[in-house]
Amino acid sequence: MKPALFAALLVTAAFPASVMAQDLGAPIGEDGPVERAATDASQAQAEEGISFTVTDESAWQDIGIAIPAFATDRDRATPANEAGTGALGREVARVITANLRNNGLFKPVGPDSLPQPGFTQITAPAFDTWGGRGAEMLVHGYVRARDDGKLVVGCYLYDVALKNELVREGWVVAAADWRRAAHKCSDLIFSRLTGESPFFDSRIAYIAETGPKDRRVKRLAVMDSDGANHRFLTLGSATALTPRYSPDYSKILYLSYVDGNPRIYVYDIGTGKQTLVSENRNPTIAPRWSPDGKYILYSMAVSGNTDIYRVPATGGASVKLTDNPGIDVGGSYSPDGSKIVFESDRSGSQQCYVMDADGKNQKRISFFGGRCATPEWSPRGDQIAFTRIAGDFNVAVMNTGGGGMRVLTRGWQDEAPTWAPNGRIIQFFRTEKNTGRSGIWQVDLTGQNERRLPTPVDASDPAWGPIRP
Amino acid sequence: MNTKIATILLLASATGLAACAKKAPETLPPVPVDNTGTETQPTPQPTGAAVGTQQHFAAAVGSSTTIYFDTDRYNVDSQDAAALQAQAQYFARYPQITFTIEGHADERGTREYNLALGERRADAARAYLVSLGVSPNRISVVSYGKERPVALASNESAWAQNRRAASVIIN
Fold this sequence. Notes:
Chain A has 469 residues and is mostly beta strands.
C-alpha cells in the first residue's frame, strides 16, 4: 500500500479553466473577520468561580433564558434597515432566540413576549423584575450606529439569581453583517453556559435541488448556519454536487458536469474564477480539504478503478494515497491532519478505513453489521460520523477505532453527515422514498434534537464550514 | 469483420441459453475467432432514422443499447455479453460512429460511491467492446452515479432498471 508518486501523469495545477465555467453565477464577496469592540459599559467583571457549568444535556434545555430586544442609544436609520437601530435591536434578539431554540439547547424566551430594557439598563439590569418572570439567565445588548455607517453591537449575559454578569463582548460590523453580530452573541452565550466551542457564526455550502426525479436540477448554494443570507452560486445548466468550504471560506471545492464529465473544481468565491483540481482526462470526485487548507484530497477513476489522491491546494504533483482494485473514495482528515478516514469496498462492501496522511497503515475500522460510507472526522477529533447502510441509510457515529457505534437517525435514506464546527451537531440530507425529494436535517449527538433546516428549495450534500473569525 | 462478429454472436446466444440465471459469475469475453468466407444474415436495416443517430442505433440493436447489473456488481454476464456483441456488430458496420457509455447506479447507494460504481460499470462495458474489436478511440465513458434514474419508483424493479450502462451515439 505504498503511496506512489503520480507526478508524471498528473501534472496538476491551479490551471485557469474559466473558459469552461459556463454555469457560474455572479461572484459574492466574503466579508472578513469581525472586529471586536470595547464594551463601553461599566467595568464590573464577571467573578471567576461563579461559573455556571452544565454537564447533562437534558439540563441545558431547562435553562430559561430571557432575550429581550437589544437597546439603542439613539434610534438611527442604518444601511441595513431604515427602521433604525431600535428595530434592528429587536431583530438581533430574535436571531439569538431562534439560534438557541432551534438547536434544542435551551428554552429561550424572545423579544416579542418580553419588555424592552432601556439603554442604561443594559449594564444595570432590573434583576428582580426578570427573576419574577422565572428567567434564570438574562441576555442584554445594544445596537449603536457609528458615524462611519458601521454598527457596534454589545452582548451581555447575566445570571439572574446571582445578580451577576457572566460574560460580555462587543463587535463592530458593517451594517449588512448585523446577523453576524447576533451569531457571535449566540456563540458567546452558548460557550459560556456549556463550556463548548462556538458554532453559530459559520456557513454551510450545499446543493439546491429542483425539478422532477429524472430531470433534477442541482445547483451549488451557500447559506449561514441558520439558513439566512442564502445564495445560489451556479445557474443550474450543469449538475453540481458535493461541495466543501475551504477552512478560510475563500474557496469551495465541488463537482461539476460543466464540461460533460464529473470533475472537481476549486471555485474562488472572491474572484468568481474556478480551476480544475487535476488537469487530466480522468473523472475526479469526492473533494476534501485538509484542516489547514494546504492540501486537497480527491478521488479519481483510472480505467474504471477509483483511488484517493492528494494534491497541494496551490497546485503541483498529485500523490496517490490508495492503490487497490476496490473503490477507494472520499476521505476526511483528523483535526490534527495526521490521519485520514475513508471508505473502500476492497473487502466486498463499503466499509470505513483509517490511514496515515501519507497513505501508510491502511486499516479497516468498521466491523459492526451493515456498511460504512461517507465517514467524516469530528472537528473535536473523538468521533467519526458516517452513513450506516443496513437496509435503510442512517447517520451514525463511532469512536475513531470503530467502537461505540451509535445510530442517530431513523429516516429511509439519511446520507452524508457533516459536523458543526464544534463537533456537537451533525447535518445530513434525507431523501424521500419514491419522490426523490431531499432536505437538509440536523441532529445532535444525543439523537434527540432532530430538525429540518429551512431552505428555499430541496437540498442535499450539506458541508458545514468552520467557525468564522 | 461482420462474419467474425456474427459467429461470436451465435456462440454467445448458445451460451446465453445455457446460462439462464441473470447473473452468472464474471466471465471473460470469448476469444475472437478467425473465420472468413461464410456469409451471414444481414444486420436488420432500420428505416427512417439516419445513420449516426441514437434512433438508428436503437432500431438496429433494440434493447441491446443498454446492459444491466446486479446490486453493487459491475461484471458483464452472459446476457450483457450478448447485448454488447450486438452493439459491437453495429459499430463494426458503421466505423465512423463514436459513442459514449453512460454508467449509472440505483438510488440505494451513497452519492460519491455511486459515481465511482457507475464509472466501473461503464468501463466494464467499454473494455468488453474493445475486446470485441471496437477501437477505444471511438468510446467515451461517463458516470452519472444515481443522478439520472430512468425508473422513478423506489422498489427493486426500478432499481434493477437504473443499474445500467447505456451506449449513446455522439452526433
